Amino acid sequence: MKTATLTLKQFYNSLNGKFATLNGEFSPLDSVKVLIKDKVKNPWSLAIMVGSFVLMITAAIVVYFLQEDFYQLRLDRLNSSVGSVFLYVGFALLLFKGGFFLYNLYLYFRYKPVASVADAALPTVTVIVPAYNEGKQVWATLMSLAKSDYPMDKLQLLAVDDGSKDDTWYWMKEAKKILGDRVTIFQQPKNMGKRHALYRGFNLGTGEVFVTVDSDSIVNADTLRNLVSPFVVNEKCGAVAGNIQVLNNQNAVLPKMLNVSFVLSFEFRRSAESQLNTVLCTPGALAAYRSEAVFACLPEWINQTFMGQPSDIGEDRAMTNMILKQGYHVLFQRNAYAYTNVPEKYKGLYKMFIRWGRSNVRENIVMAKYVFANFRKESKIGPRLLFISQALKIIMTYPFLLFMLYFIISHPILFLSSTLLSILVVSTFPVLFYAKRYSVSKAFWAYSYSILFTFGLFWITPYAIATANRRGWLTRELTAN
């Protein structure tokens, strides 16, 4: 396929609504580089990365010199009924998590993405892009999708403006001017939430497969065909999760950290889950669903409630749960990439994690109602192990939070040094994983992220559990992350 690239000047002009032709094609990754408007490198990046490593090495030295104190602490715990219970429970959980990690590692090495099928075998696809206050970004999203290496007669592109308060609708219309009949745009009469925007798209779509893409995401040219190929070769496939990476990872420190975290979450964990045919969450940034599976649960999905309140978060995890419940397989395609924006500041980050945490609590409760039933003909051991692992995190949240607070108050130096040493040990795997897959230098952000998560975001899960019934997207009205 002959491809011409768009010059930087042409792409800048296109962002201002001056793009005039579709004769040439541009690489989505090239457009990403322009859209981000490469910022001056953060001078604190290297200091944070090096400082994190020095901090952990210092902690390891402290632990070495305080071995007698740690030995005495273990004896004190064993001589205490409460302490011994925590010690044995902790050891049992460590064995479970260690064994589960090795099992995931085994599954990861067995995983292979489904190869792209021929054009003639590809299903008809409806791509739905819900948008709210995305501005110019929605234009770039629609353009990257329109440039997909997918048969035009099999691709339906729908964009739904969910009552945006900015110029999102303007940029949708600008995309429409360029793409013509290749995209259909809609505007909700008022802001109704992402779930309702998707619902409108599902009802208007005609494809055999629905693909949902967030309006702050960019896809590769081969993403769509790679994403939907599992539906062709596996008739039991009901949904497919795409491979999400961070779009704005050149901007600020947090996106750099999150990019490493995303790679581990998708390329390792979801690869393992895919081997069990049970990916627990198809991400809103990029996911595909068999239309039959969607329509079978659509009324329940749009009317879903939690503790008597309409569910306005976690629409992706809810859809995944309902499709798994039908007995379908849910898979992951490592070769189907999407690049999405993430928060660049702490406030935006913790709000995003709270939303994810609340959704996780809700959908684990939902999963508990069917995962031990005969919900699929094949082996159900894998899904049940995944559920148990998720449930244990929630169940043990408060006991370990109390234990951590007690440890901090009674032995602050021992707590700090042992925790930092643990981070050094545990986070070495994601460092090696990212270094092997992508970049050695960027891999060390895994250490910094683990320190941030341990000391700056530890409260997210207990808070999400306590407030799981609360509604609200939390980040939808933010103009800056």
TrEMBL record:
GO terms for molecular function: hyaluronan synthase activity. GO terms for biological process: extracellular matrix assembly; hyaluronan biosynthetic process. GO terms for cellular component: plasma membrane. Keywords: Cell membrane, Glycosyltransferase, Membrane, Transferase, Transmembrane, Transmembrane helix. It is found in: Cell membrane. It holds the Pfam family Glyco_tranf_2_3. Its main location: membrane. It comes from the Bacteria. The chain crosses the membrane at residues 46-66, 86-106, 385-409, 415-435, 447-466. SUPFAM superfamilies: Nucleotide-diphospho-sugar transferases. InterPro entries: Nucleotide-diphossugar_trans. This is Hyaluronan synthase.
